[in-house]
Design a protein that fits this description.
This protein is α/β, with parallel strands linked by helices and 428 residues long. Helix content is 34%, strand content 21%. It is built from 13 helices and 20 strands. Strands 9-7-5-2-10-1-11-15-19-20 form a ten-stranded mixed sheet, with helices on both faces. Strands 14, 16, 17 and 18 form a four-stranded mixed sheet that branches. A hairpin with a 2-residue loop joins strand 3 and strand 4. The longest helix is centred in the middle third of the chain and has 22 residues. The structure holds inosinic acid. Inosinic acid (IMP) binds next to helix 4. Inosinic acid binds next to helix 4.
């Protein structure tokens, strides 16, 4: 059976959790392919709110096997706390599978993340300080520890000693901090963590291929978004993994020919947390409206998100980078009550017009948006479940976006609840 990928098309926080959860209903396996607990999904089911950071979204369905793929970086303490929290609320996590090849976030990664940020001063990236960048850096330096090392204590200790012999010099000599003690770390990770996680550690590549070969539906769940991608995002203001669809292949071990559906999750406006260029950013009362009505504060860090108008230049690039086959538009209801809406259709700099993302970062930093203005609507969309119930201005807004994106918009979200959405294609 072919696989489906869910990918964020902006800077993360597009509302992937809700739609992944919706699509997951038709799936047998849901696999996370990159990132770590820098992500945060909010799901509202029967009025109950679940905040999930590491466990794949499908966990709320009994029929789904949730999988953490090899491309994810895992802080075992966080994963255990999340599983315990879910289980305390009656969500069974026993079927969750964790790739033995996923890398571990170690206590020194979290410390180094904060230290690097402080060291950068005004040039800081605004990371989530979860240790994501340093964990992926150690993976690339080949001094990382993997989940499978938890199952082999002598190997774990040897690798930890090797990593610390490097990292402790950095901590002491670069940042003037105390070195970390290998024994303390080993006690915590090999003690409680290893035993708790051992039943979940699996060869997830084989699991996924066997699922595909036996005709099961596999959903590959991305975290963050296209423009936080290490290769294709607004570097260096990016995360340290590949949220784009290519990351789904490397982060799970499933090749591209298995993927036949790529759902691009797109917010009806744009937000960003942390530093970096943002062409359509708003600094006025419309920006405040989007923050307040949209609840635009990080699920994870509580930081106020930066907000701006919908950016078609980003979206065209996201379609190209991810081979998007359909779009899910989220949070349309947040635009309720705005008299006029703007959509950025191109960038401009020094008389030059850019319909597609300029490759040079300096251009993106200085470019100004070219807007098309549309009518707003005053109706409350939160109870709309069919396109025919939409006010004409809202239908025009969706149709305008769909034409510009060049890919069908299917589901449109009008509120946080599982049932607050409509199928735009039903009317077409
Ligand atoms: P890191 O992933 O913690 O290293 O942070 C790098 C950049 O990605 C920062 O600008 C973060 O704010 C941003 N970021 C990381 N995870 C998320 C997310 O799940 N949503 C939105 N932004 C994120």
């Amino acid at each position: 059976m072919p696989a489906t990928v869910v990918v964020g098309t902006q800077w993360g926080d597009e509302g992937k959790g809700k739609f992944t959860d919706l699509v997951a209903a038709e799936m047998d396996v849901v696999v996370r392919y990159q990132g770590g607990h820098n992500a945060g999904h909010t799901l509202v089911v029967s009025g109950e709110t679940f905040k999930i950071q590491l466990v794949p979204s499908g966990v709320l369905y009994e029929h789904i096997t949730p999988v953490i793929g090899n491309g994810v970086v895992v802080d075992p303490r966080v994963l255990i706390a999340e599983m315990d929290g879910l289980e305390a609320r009656g969500v069974d996590c026993s079927s969750m599978r964790l790739s033995g090849n996923a890398h571990l976030i170690m206590p020194y990664h979290t410390e180094l993340d904060a230290l690097h940020e402080r060291h950068l001063g005004k040039a800081k990236l605004g990371t989530t300080k979860r240790g994501i960048g340093p964990a992926y850096a150690d993976k690339s330096m080949r001094i990382g520890l993997r989940v499978q090392d938890l199952l082999d204590p002598p190997i774990f200790r040897a690798k930890l000693e090797a990593a610390l012999s490097h990292t402790n010099k950095v901590l002491a000599k670069v940042f003037n901090r105390l070195p970390m003690n290998a024994e303390d770390i080993a006690r915590e990770y090999l003690g409680g963590c290893a035993e708790r996680l051992a039943p979940h550690v699996t060869d997830t590549v084989t699991l996924l291929h066997e699922a595909l070969e036996s005709g099961q539906q596999v959903l590959m769940e991305g975290a963050q978004g296209t423009f936080l991608d290490l290769d294709h995002g607004t570097y260096p203001f990016v995360t340290s993994s590949n949220p784009v669809v290519g990351g789904a292949c490397t982060g799970t071990g499933v090749g591209p020919r298995h993927i036949d559906r790529v759902i691009g999750i797109t917010k009806a406006y744009v937000t960003r947390v942390g530093s970096g260029p943002f062409v359509t950013e708003l600094f006025d009362e419309v920006g405040d409206h989007l923050v307040e009505v949209g609840g635009e504060f990080g699920t994870n860090t509580g930081r106020r998100r930066r907000t701006g108008w919908f950016d078609m230049v980003m979206m065209r690039q996201a379609v190209r980078l991810n081979s998007i086959t359909e779009v899910a538009l989220t949070k349309l209801d947040v635009l309720d009550g705005l008299e006029r809406l703007k959509v950025c259709v191109a960038y401009e700099l020094d008389g030059e017009r850019f319909e597609h993302m300029p490759y040079h970062q300096s251009v993106i930093h200085k470019a100004v948006p070219v807007y098309t203005e549309l009518e707003g609507w005053s109706t409350d969309l939160s109870g709309v479940t069919r396109s025919s119930q939409l006010p004409a201005a809202a239908a025009d807004y969706i149709a305008f976006l769909e034409e510009g994106i060049g890919v069908p918009i299917r589901l449109v979200g009008v509120g946080p609840g599982r049932s607050q959405y409509l199928d735009w294609q039903e009317a077409a």
